Predict the 3D structure of the following.
Amino acid sequence: MIYLDAAATAPARREVLEEMWPLLTTTFGNPSSHHTYGEAAAAAFSSARARLAAVLGCRPSEIVITSGGTEANNLALKGIALASPRGRHIVTSAIEHAAVAEVLRYLQDAHGFHITELPVSATGLVAAADLEAALQADTTLCTVMYANNEMGTVQDVVALAEVCRNRNIPFHTDAVQAAGWLPVDVGRLGVTAMSLSGHKLGTPKGVGLLYLRAGTRCEPVLHGGGQERGRRSGTENVAGAVGLARALELAQLALPGAGDASSAARDAFIARILAGVPGAILTGDPGMRLPNLASFCFPGVSGEAVLLEIERRGVVCSSGSACAAGSSDPSTVLLALGLDAGTALSAVRLSWVQGTARSDLEEAASAVVASVHAVLALGAARPAPDLAPA
Protein backbone atom coordinates (compact mmCIF):
# COMPACT_ATOMS: atom_id res chain seq x y z
CA MET A 1 0.00 0.00 0.00
CA ILE A 2 1.08 3.58 -0.69
CA TYR A 3 0.17 5.78 2.27
CA LEU A 4 -0.84 9.30 1.20
CA ASP A 5 -2.72 10.56 4.25
CA ALA A 6 0.12 12.20 6.16
CA ALA A 7 -2.01 15.31 6.76
CA ALA A 8 -4.13 13.12 9.04
CA THR A 9 -1.14 11.48 10.73
CA ALA A 10 2.39 10.51 9.81
CA PRO A 11 4.13 7.27 10.77
CA ALA A 12 6.39 7.52 13.81
CA ARG A 13 10.05 7.95 12.87
CA ARG A 14 12.51 5.34 14.08
CA GLU A 15 14.97 8.01 15.28
CA VAL A 16 12.21 9.56 17.38
CA LEU A 17 11.15 6.27 18.96
CA GLU A 18 14.75 5.34 19.76
CA GLU A 19 15.30 8.64 21.59
CA MET A 20 12.02 8.26 23.47
CA TRP A 21 12.61 4.67 24.58
CA PRO A 22 14.95 5.38 27.54
CA LEU A 23 12.45 7.93 28.90
CA LEU A 24 9.83 5.18 28.99
CA THR A 25 11.99 2.40 30.42
CA THR A 26 14.86 3.74 32.53
CA THR A 27 14.54 7.52 33.00
CA PHE A 28 10.80 7.18 33.57
CA GLY A 29 10.41 9.20 36.77
CA ASN A 30 7.93 11.98 37.42
CA PRO A 31 9.89 15.22 36.80
CA SER A 32 8.21 16.79 39.84
CA SER A 33 9.63 14.10 42.15
CA HIS A 34 12.73 15.01 44.17
CA HIS A 35 14.75 11.84 43.78
CA THR A 36 17.19 10.39 41.26
CA TYR A 37 14.56 9.19 38.80
CA GLY A 38 12.56 12.41 38.99
CA GLU A 39 15.59 14.66 38.62
CA ALA A 40 16.82 12.71 35.59
CA ALA A 41 13.40 13.04 33.97
CA ALA A 42 13.30 16.75 34.78
CA ALA A 43 16.70 17.24 33.16
CA ALA A 44 15.56 15.44 30.00
CA PHE A 45 12.37 17.51 29.91
CA SER A 46 14.31 20.75 30.31
CA SER A 47 16.71 19.72 27.55
CA ALA A 48 13.82 18.91 25.21
CA ARG A 49 12.27 22.31 25.84
CA ALA A 50 15.56 24.03 25.07
CA ARG A 51 15.94 22.07 21.83
CA LEU A 52 12.43 23.01 20.75
CA ALA A 53 13.11 26.65 21.56
CA ALA A 54 16.26 26.56 19.44
CA VAL A 55 14.27 25.42 16.40
CA LEU A 56 11.47 27.92 16.96
CA GLY A 57 13.81 30.80 17.74
CA CYS A 58 12.31 31.59 21.13
CA ARG A 59 13.03 31.25 24.83
CA PRO A 60 12.48 27.85 26.47
CA SER A 61 10.09 29.53 28.93
CA GLU A 62 7.84 30.52 26.01
CA ILE A 63 7.04 26.89 25.17
CA VAL A 64 4.13 25.01 26.77
CA ILE A 65 4.11 21.25 26.17
CA THR A 66 0.57 20.00 25.44
CA SER A 67 -1.16 16.78 24.45
CA GLY A 68 -1.36 17.89 20.82
CA GLY A 69 -2.53 20.59 18.45
CA THR A 70 -6.13 20.62 19.69
CA GLU A 71 -5.11 21.35 23.26
CA ALA A 72 -2.58 23.94 22.10
CA ASN A 73 -5.31 25.73 20.12
CA ASN A 74 -7.71 25.57 23.06
CA LEU A 75 -5.11 27.01 25.43
CA ALA A 76 -4.15 29.79 23.02
CA LEU A 77 -7.68 30.89 22.15
CA LYS A 78 -9.48 30.41 25.47
CA GLY A 79 -6.44 31.43 27.47
CA ILE A 80 -5.68 34.68 25.66
CA ALA A 81 -9.32 35.66 25.10
CA LEU A 82 -10.43 35.12 28.68
CA ALA A 83 -7.34 36.77 30.16
CA SER A 84 -7.57 39.93 28.07
CA PRO A 85 -9.32 43.02 29.46
CA ARG A 86 -9.42 44.50 25.98
CA GLY A 87 -12.84 43.33 24.83
CA ARG A 88 -14.95 40.53 23.44
CA HIS A 89 -14.13 40.52 19.73
CA ILE A 90 -12.10 37.88 17.85
CA VAL A 91 -11.15 37.77 14.17
CA THR A 92 -10.60 34.50 12.33
CA SER A 93 -10.88 33.03 8.84
CA ALA A 94 -13.61 30.97 7.20
CA ILE A 95 -11.30 27.96 6.70
CA GLU A 96 -10.03 27.12 10.18
CA HIS A 97 -9.68 23.60 11.55
CA ALA A 98 -12.43 22.44 13.90
CA ALA A 99 -9.97 22.73 16.80
CA VAL A 100 -10.14 26.48 16.26
CA ALA A 101 -13.64 26.96 14.87
CA GLU A 102 -15.31 25.00 17.67
CA VAL A 103 -13.36 26.84 20.36
CA LEU A 104 -14.49 30.16 18.92
CA ARG A 105 -18.08 28.93 18.86
CA TYR A 106 -17.73 28.04 22.53
CA LEU A 107 -16.33 31.49 23.37
CA GLN A 108 -19.23 33.06 21.51
CA ASP A 109 -21.96 30.95 23.10
CA ALA A 110 -20.58 30.65 26.63
CA HIS A 111 -18.74 33.94 27.07
CA GLY A 112 -20.42 36.39 24.74
CA PHE A 113 -17.55 36.94 22.31
CA HIS A 114 -18.34 38.36 18.88
CA ILE A 115 -16.56 36.49 16.09
CA THR A 116 -15.71 38.07 12.74
CA GLU A 117 -15.00 35.46 10.08
CA LEU A 118 -12.83 36.73 7.24
CA PRO A 119 -13.70 35.55 3.73
CA VAL A 120 -11.09 33.85 1.56
CA SER A 121 -10.34 33.99 -2.14
CA ALA A 122 -11.33 31.17 -4.49
CA THR A 123 -7.95 29.60 -3.71
CA GLY A 124 -8.25 30.03 0.05
CA LEU A 125 -6.14 33.13 0.73
CA VAL A 126 -6.93 35.71 3.42
CA ALA A 127 -6.27 39.31 2.39
CA ALA A 128 -4.33 41.49 4.82
CA ALA A 129 -6.58 44.41 3.85
CA ASP A 130 -9.65 42.43 4.94
CA LEU A 131 -8.01 41.70 8.28
CA GLU A 132 -7.12 45.38 8.74
CA ALA A 133 -10.72 46.39 8.03
CA ALA A 134 -12.11 43.84 10.49
CA LEU A 135 -10.09 44.94 13.51
CA GLN A 136 -11.92 46.97 16.13
CA ALA A 137 -11.05 48.86 19.30
CA ASP A 138 -12.21 45.85 21.35
CA THR A 139 -10.53 43.14 19.23
CA THR A 140 -8.80 40.89 21.72
CA LEU A 141 -7.31 38.25 19.40
CA CYS A 142 -6.86 37.19 15.78
CA THR A 143 -6.30 33.59 14.72
CA VAL A 144 -5.55 32.47 11.14
CA MET A 145 -4.02 29.10 10.32
CA TYR A 146 -0.58 28.98 8.67
CA ALA A 147 -1.40 26.17 6.20
CA ASN A 148 -4.79 24.62 5.57
CA ASN A 149 -5.12 20.91 6.28
CA GLU A 150 -7.73 20.20 3.60
CA MET A 151 -6.44 22.02 0.53
CA GLY A 152 -2.89 23.02 1.47
CA THR A 153 -3.15 26.79 0.95
CA VAL A 154 -0.42 28.68 2.82
CA GLN A 155 -1.23 32.09 4.27
CA ASP A 156 1.11 35.07 4.33
CA VAL A 157 1.32 34.85 8.10
CA VAL A 158 4.09 37.46 8.27
CA ALA A 159 1.85 40.09 6.66
CA LEU A 160 -1.21 39.13 8.70
CA ALA A 161 0.71 39.14 11.97
CA GLU A 162 2.17 42.54 11.15
CA VAL A 163 -1.32 44.01 10.73
CA CYS A 164 -2.19 42.85 14.23
CA ARG A 165 1.15 43.83 15.73
CA ASN A 166 0.68 47.40 14.47
CA ARG A 167 -2.56 47.51 16.48
CA ASN A 168 -1.09 45.70 19.50
CA ILE A 169 -3.49 42.76 19.03
CA PRO A 170 -2.31 39.20 19.77
CA PHE A 171 -2.04 36.99 16.67
CA HIS A 172 -2.24 33.19 16.90
CA THR A 173 -1.61 30.72 14.11
CA ASP A 174 -2.39 27.02 13.94
CA ALA A 175 0.81 25.70 12.36
CA VAL A 176 0.04 22.00 12.79
CA GLN A 177 0.20 21.28 9.04
CA ALA A 178 2.98 23.78 8.34
CA ALA A 179 5.62 22.45 10.72
CA GLY A 180 8.18 20.33 8.93
CA TRP A 181 7.42 21.95 5.57
CA LEU A 182 7.56 25.70 6.18
CA PRO A 183 9.73 28.00 8.33
CA VAL A 184 8.54 28.10 11.95
CA ASP A 185 10.88 30.74 13.40
CA VAL A 186 8.43 32.72 15.53
CA GLY A 187 10.53 35.88 15.40
CA ARG A 188 10.44 35.97 11.62
CA LEU A 189 6.76 35.08 11.52
CA GLY A 190 5.94 37.76 14.08
CA VAL A 191 3.26 35.71 15.83
CA THR A 192 2.16 35.97 19.45
CA ALA A 193 1.20 32.31 19.74
CA MET A 194 1.62 29.21 17.56
CA SER A 195 0.34 25.64 17.87
CA LEU A 196 2.18 22.50 16.73
CA SER A 197 1.39 18.77 16.87
CA GLY A 198 3.91 15.95 17.08
CA HIS A 199 2.12 13.18 15.19
CA LYS A 200 2.24 15.16 11.94
CA LEU A 201 6.03 15.15 12.29
CA GLY A 202 6.75 11.56 13.25
CA THR A 203 6.08 11.25 16.98
CA PRO A 204 3.49 8.95 18.51
CA LYS A 205 0.14 10.66 18.99
CA GLY A 206 -0.35 12.61 22.20
CA VAL A 207 2.16 15.45 22.27
CA GLY A 208 2.27 18.98 20.91
CA LEU A 209 3.22 22.47 21.98
CA LEU A 210 2.08 26.04 22.20
CA TYR A 211 4.52 28.86 21.67
CA LEU A 212 3.34 31.77 23.80
CA ARG A 213 5.29 35.02 23.59
CA ALA A 214 6.63 36.23 26.93
CA GLY A 215 4.34 38.74 28.59
CA THR A 216 1.17 37.44 26.91
CA ARG A 217 -1.62 37.03 29.43
CA CYS A 218 -3.14 33.56 29.24
CA GLU A 219 -5.63 31.81 31.50
CA PRO A 220 -4.93 28.08 32.00
CA VAL A 221 -7.42 25.60 30.61
CA LEU A 222 -6.22 22.71 32.80
CA HIS A 223 -5.90 23.31 36.54
CA GLY A 224 -4.11 21.11 39.02
CA GLY A 225 -0.51 20.83 40.11
CA GLY A 226 0.70 24.01 38.44
CA GLN A 227 3.12 22.44 35.96
CA GLU A 228 4.35 24.43 32.95
CA ARG A 229 4.58 27.60 35.05
CA GLY A 230 0.93 27.25 35.94
CA ARG A 231 -0.15 27.40 32.29
CA ARG A 232 -0.87 23.69 31.84
CA SER A 233 -1.23 21.40 34.83
CA GLY A 234 -0.65 17.67 34.57
CA THR A 235 2.31 15.32 34.89
CA GLU A 236 4.69 16.21 32.10
CA ASN A 237 4.99 13.91 29.08
CA VAL A 238 8.78 13.72 29.16
CA ALA A 239 9.18 11.06 26.48
CA GLY A 240 6.73 12.90 24.24
CA ALA A 241 8.59 16.18 24.63
CA VAL A 242 11.91 14.51 23.82
CA GLY A 243 10.36 12.84 20.78
CA LEU A 244 8.83 16.11 19.63
CA ALA A 245 12.19 17.86 19.89
CA ARG A 246 13.86 15.15 17.80
CA ALA A 247 11.09 15.08 15.20
CA LEU A 248 11.05 18.86 14.78
CA GLU A 249 14.84 18.97 14.50
CA LEU A 250 14.87 16.27 11.83
CA ALA A 251 12.07 17.87 9.84
CA GLN A 252 13.47 21.38 9.88
CA LEU A 253 17.02 20.17 9.15
CA ALA A 254 15.79 18.51 5.96
CA LEU A 255 13.46 21.37 5.07
CA PRO A 256 15.40 23.27 2.37
CA GLY A 257 16.07 20.32 0.07
CA ALA A 258 12.95 18.36 0.97
CA GLY A 259 10.70 21.34 0.35
CA ASP A 260 12.07 22.04 -3.13
CA ALA A 261 12.05 18.39 -4.18
CA SER A 262 8.56 17.80 -2.81
CA SER A 263 7.21 20.92 -4.52
CA ALA A 264 8.49 19.67 -7.86
CA ALA A 265 7.05 16.20 -7.25
CA ARG A 266 3.77 17.75 -6.09
CA ASP A 267 3.45 19.88 -9.24
CA ALA A 268 4.09 16.86 -11.47
CA PHE A 269 1.56 14.84 -9.46
CA ILE A 270 -1.07 17.58 -9.82
CA ALA A 271 -0.42 18.00 -13.54
CA ARG A 272 -0.78 14.25 -14.13
CA ILE A 273 -4.18 14.09 -12.43
CA LEU A 274 -5.55 17.26 -14.04
CA ALA A 275 -4.48 15.96 -17.47
CA GLY A 276 -5.96 12.53 -16.82
CA VAL A 277 -9.34 13.68 -15.49
CA PRO A 278 -10.91 16.41 -17.62
CA GLY A 279 -13.03 18.66 -15.44
CA ALA A 280 -11.07 17.90 -12.26
CA ILE A 281 -10.67 20.91 -9.95
CA LEU A 282 -7.51 21.56 -7.98
CA THR A 283 -8.53 23.07 -4.64
CA GLY A 284 -6.28 25.52 -2.87
CA ASP A 285 -3.79 28.01 -4.25
CA PRO A 286 -1.60 26.73 -7.13
CA GLY A 287 1.52 28.49 -5.84
CA MET A 288 0.97 29.30 -2.17
CA ARG A 289 0.48 25.72 -1.03
CA LEU A 290 2.18 23.04 1.04
CA PRO A 291 4.86 21.02 -0.81
CA ASN A 292 3.31 17.73 0.32
CA LEU A 293 -0.41 18.10 -0.30
CA ALA A 294 -2.69 18.00 -3.34
CA SER A 295 -6.46 18.06 -3.19
CA PHE A 296 -9.05 17.77 -5.92
CA CYS A 297 -12.75 17.81 -6.54
CA PHE A 298 -14.17 15.56 -9.24
CA PRO A 299 -17.61 16.95 -10.15
CA GLY A 300 -20.17 14.31 -10.93
CA VAL A 301 -18.75 11.55 -8.74
CA SER A 302 -18.92 10.62 -5.08
CA GLY A 303 -15.67 11.32 -3.29
CA GLU A 304 -16.25 8.33 -1.00
CA ALA A 305 -16.70 6.02 -3.99
CA VAL A 306 -13.47 7.31 -5.52
CA LEU A 307 -11.62 6.79 -2.23
CA LEU A 308 -12.77 3.17 -2.04
CA GLU A 309 -11.66 2.58 -5.62
CA ILE A 310 -8.29 4.24 -4.99
CA GLU A 311 -7.67 2.05 -1.95
CA ARG A 312 -8.64 -1.02 -3.97
CA ARG A 313 -5.78 -0.04 -6.26
CA GLY A 314 -3.30 0.14 -3.39
CA VAL A 315 -3.31 3.82 -2.36
CA VAL A 316 -4.58 5.18 0.97
CA CYS A 317 -5.80 8.78 1.09
CA SER A 318 -8.80 10.73 2.41
CA SER A 319 -11.56 13.15 1.51
CA GLY A 320 -10.30 15.91 3.80
CA SER A 321 -9.93 16.53 7.50
CA ALA A 322 -9.73 13.31 9.52
CA CYS A 323 -11.65 15.11 12.29
CA ALA A 324 -14.70 15.24 9.98
CA ALA A 325 -14.53 11.60 8.92
CA GLY A 326 -17.95 10.00 8.79
CA SER A 327 -19.79 13.28 8.29
CA SER A 328 -22.18 13.43 5.33
CA ASP A 329 -22.00 17.23 5.24
CA PRO A 330 -19.82 19.02 2.68
CA SER A 331 -16.62 20.58 3.95
CA THR A 332 -17.10 24.13 5.24
CA VAL A 333 -13.58 24.87 3.97
CA LEU A 334 -14.48 23.93 0.40
CA LEU A 335 -17.79 25.77 0.61
CA ALA A 336 -15.86 28.87 1.68
CA LEU A 337 -13.99 28.69 -1.64
CA GLY A 338 -17.30 29.11 -3.46
CA LEU A 339 -17.76 25.47 -4.46
CA ASP A 340 -21.27 24.04 -4.39
CA ALA A 341 -22.16 21.25 -1.97
CA GLY A 342 -22.19 18.50 -4.60
CA THR A 343 -18.74 19.41 -5.85
CA ALA A 344 -17.39 19.67 -2.30
CA LEU A 345 -18.59 16.13 -1.59
CA SER A 346 -16.40 14.84 -4.44
CA ALA A 347 -13.18 15.93 -2.69
CA VAL A 348 -10.08 13.75 -2.47
CA ARG A 349 -6.95 14.78 -0.55
CA LEU A 350 -3.51 13.20 -0.92
CA SER A 351 -0.59 14.10 1.34
CA TRP A 352 2.81 12.57 1.99
CA VAL A 353 5.90 12.64 4.20
CA GLN A 354 9.39 13.84 3.30
CA GLY A 355 10.62 10.35 2.44
CA THR A 356 7.84 9.45 -0.01
CA ALA A 357 9.35 8.29 -3.31
CA ARG A 358 8.49 10.15 -6.49
CA SER A 359 7.74 6.80 -8.12
CA ASP A 360 5.07 6.19 -5.47
CA LEU A 361 3.48 9.54 -6.31
CA GLU A 362 3.49 8.68 -10.00
CA GLU A 363 1.84 5.33 -9.26
CA ALA A 364 -0.69 7.03 -7.00
CA ALA A 365 -1.57 9.62 -9.64
CA SER A 366 -2.28 6.83 -12.11
CA ALA A 367 -4.46 5.12 -9.50
CA VAL A 368 -6.46 8.30 -8.92
CA VAL A 369 -7.05 8.84 -12.62
CA ALA A 370 -8.09 5.23 -13.17
CA SER A 371 -10.34 5.28 -10.10
CA VAL A 372 -12.24 8.39 -11.13
CA HIS A 373 -12.83 6.97 -14.60
CA ALA A 374 -13.95 3.65 -13.08
CA VAL A 375 -16.51 5.40 -10.85
CA LEU A 376 -17.73 7.52 -13.76
CA ALA A 377 -18.10 4.42 -15.92
CA LEU A 378 -20.00 2.61 -13.17
CA GLY A 379 -22.39 5.52 -12.86
CA ALA A 380 -22.94 5.65 -16.61
CA ALA A 381 -23.59 1.89 -16.74
CA ARG A 382 -26.35 1.98 -14.13
CA PRO A 383 -29.86 1.97 -15.64
CA ALA A 384 -31.92 5.08 -15.06
CA PRO A 385 -34.52 4.63 -12.29
CA ASP A 386 -38.05 3.85 -13.40
CA LEU A 387 -40.04 6.93 -12.49
CA ALA A 388 -43.29 5.81 -14.14
CA PRO A 389 -46.28 5.84 -11.77
CA ALA A 390 -47.30 2.48 -10.37
Notes: The two ends are 48 Å apart (CA to CA). DSSP finds 13 helices and twelve strands in the chain. The mean pLDDT is 94. The longest strand covers residues 89-93.
